[in-house]
Amino acid sequence: MQHHEEMYEVNPFKPKEGSMVDELAVIVAILVGWGLLNFGFQALLSLLAESATGDGMLTRLTFLSFPFHFWFTGQFLPLWFVVLCVIFNLYTDRVTERHSHRRDRTYE
Q: Dihedral angle at the C-alpha atoms of 65, 71, 74, 75, nearest 10 degrees?
């Protein structure tokens, strides 16, 4: 029972060496990329607001006939999420493949 619990112990703040460190690095990078655009754009809108109603340079710009802030939030951010998912899967596949080769020693 003791050995079974140690085998599946996962702590994201203290990852085990090997694939878990690389997987955690990918997860943190993806979360930073997601949070930066989601919250950063809202902060930028707030910083560039020229009036109390929120009107500013980014709300006056248009892109594809939409106000830029509307297009960015309504179309670009969902697309960004899909792009991050693809990047996450590609890197996770590479990390898994690299570490499985190391375990099997098939890379030699």
A: 90
28: which residues sit within 8 A by CB, 6+ positions away?
none
Greatest Cα pair distance in the chain: 64
CA torsion, ordered 81, 76, 35, 50, to nearest 10 deg = -170
The model's pLDDT over 66-95, given as tens digits with 9 standing for 90+, comes to 889 999 999 999 999 999 999 999 998 888
- Indicate the pTM of the whole model: 0.71
Torsion angle, CA of 66/72/78/79, rounded to 10 degrees? 90
Q: For residue 23, which of 72, 90, 69 has the smallest C-alpha distance?
A: 90
DSSP labels, 19-52: HHHHHHHHHHHHHHHHHHHHHHHHHHHHHHB-ST
What is the Cα–Cα distance from 99 to 16, expressed in whole angstroms? 13
Residue type, 32: V
